[in-house]
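Sharing a chain and its predicted structure for anyone who wants a worked example. Both blocks are below, sequence first, tokens second.
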Amino acid sequence: MIGSIRGRLATKQAPTIIVECAGVGYEIQTPMSTFLELPELGAEVQLQTHLVVREDAHTLYGFSTDNEKHLFRALLKINGVGAKMALGILSGMSVADFSRCVQHEDTAMLVKIPGVGKKTAERLIIEMRDRVDGAGQPVPMVARHPVKPDARSEAFDALVALGYKPAEVKRLLGNLGSDEMSAEDMIRHALRQAVN
């Protein structure tokens, strides 16, 4: 099992990154909470990882904190929750916010995450009740990154990859202009809009 990885950040295209270690590039899927904390390309990065082995694929998932990794693993144990939904949950709220949703039985907040219906939200609350007490800290805000010319399309693609419908992504991004914000800032803004 690959428990963590440290190396040079070679590629960032939400939600996928490539980290080069000793000449090998590891493709890693990340939740937006981790993706938005990543340094600039070429910088060193260290992530906690979880390897999912299936018959047709080996997929590596990376997290900026142990709490995110533990929550991801706990979510995978719930019937009907796969890796894509678990990433969506971690992208839509911090570990602490998820813990609050479970403790306060807030299904309304959970169903705002793409792919999470009312029955799944209720199952999450019931099955996670004993596993989330006091878990995690909120994800810290990160500094703005330099503006990229295709920031809006990068943000659009990342949100669609998380399971949002294209029409919903257009609504969430609204009138944001790529000359004003980075892709990471647009994604953060859209995710806030989705849960409010």
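Comments welcome. Residues 67-128 form a domain with the DNA polymerase; domain 1 fold (CATH 1.10.150.20).
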